[in-house]
Amino acid sequence: MCDIKISLSNHISRHSFGNIAKNRISPEVLQRLYRHSNIKTTIGYQANFIHDEADDALDMVLNS
């Protein structure tokens, strides 16, 4: 239906969603979407996808 040519596991799709969501969706909403019982789990999980400060620093160096 989406014409995806690679094997897409549940694990890969969750990580892709987390990366796209980054800090755009509140942790409380993400907790419900991920079905985590503890908000600390959600915050720790999402921390893997939020690199804005590092991305901005790299942009400053590479685009100067």
Number of strands: 0
Biggest sheet features? none
Radius of gyration: 15 Å
Shape designation = flat
Structural class: mainly alpha
Task: State the helicity in percent bands.
Answer: 55-70%
Compressed to H and E, one letter per element, the order equals: HHHH
Strand content: under 5%
- The structural domain count equals 1
Query: How far do the termini sit from each other?
Result: 43 Å
This entry's quaternary arrangement is: single chain
Integer average pLDDT: 89
The DSSP helix count reads 4
Describe the structure.
By secondary structure, the chain is mostly helical. The protein has one domain (10-62). Helix content is 62%, strand content 0%. The protein is built from four helices and no strands. It has helices at 10-21, 27-34, 39-47, 52-62.
Question: How would you summarize the topology of this molecule?
Answer:
Blueprint: H1 10-21, H2 27-34, H3 39-47, H4 52-62
Helix pairs in contact: 2-3
Task: Supply database-style keywords.
64 residues; mainly alpha; 62% helix; flat
Provide a short characterization of the protein structure.
With 64 residues, the protein is mostly helical. It is built from 4 helices and no strands. It has one domain.
